[in-house]
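Worked Example 4.2. Consider the chain below.
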Amino acid sequence: MFTNEMVPIPMNVHGVPDYAWLAGAKAGLATRGNDIPEWPWLHFLDGVQTVVSALKGLEAVEPGEEPKDGSVYDSLGGYVSVTGKTTDLGFSFPVPRRGAAIIASRLPGVEMMWTAGHLLVQKESIGAFQRLVPLRGPIVEEVSG
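Applying the procedure from the previous section yields the following structure tokens:
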């Protein structure tokens, strides 16, 4: 059984990994490619990669797509937790235009803009975004700081 101490990922009430979140994280890992992250990202991403690799048959869920099990918000949380980057204006994550439109339609109170292949969540809307989308890992401290 996995625990939050061993692997920094969300668990459901039964102590089992949240498959929708992990499906989004798997898509995020593929999007990140082979870039070398800085600490503490390295520890977080290694933990996520370990769990995703152990779950045979877990299909990646791209941003805006519906996961087989769970919520589109949970899968988006996994994706953004792995790919998100802070900026002076808020935080952004890579997403195709079609995915950006779907995400924006599901988060009507969140101010976002799509630019250069990234969706930017503006600082004023980070709280509203986080109330719906479960972010984990270093991005949480970065956007809260």
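Residues 1-7 have pLDDT under 50 and may be disordered. Helices lie at 19-32, 41-54, 72-83, 97-106, 126-132, 138-144. Compare this with Example 4.1 before moving on.
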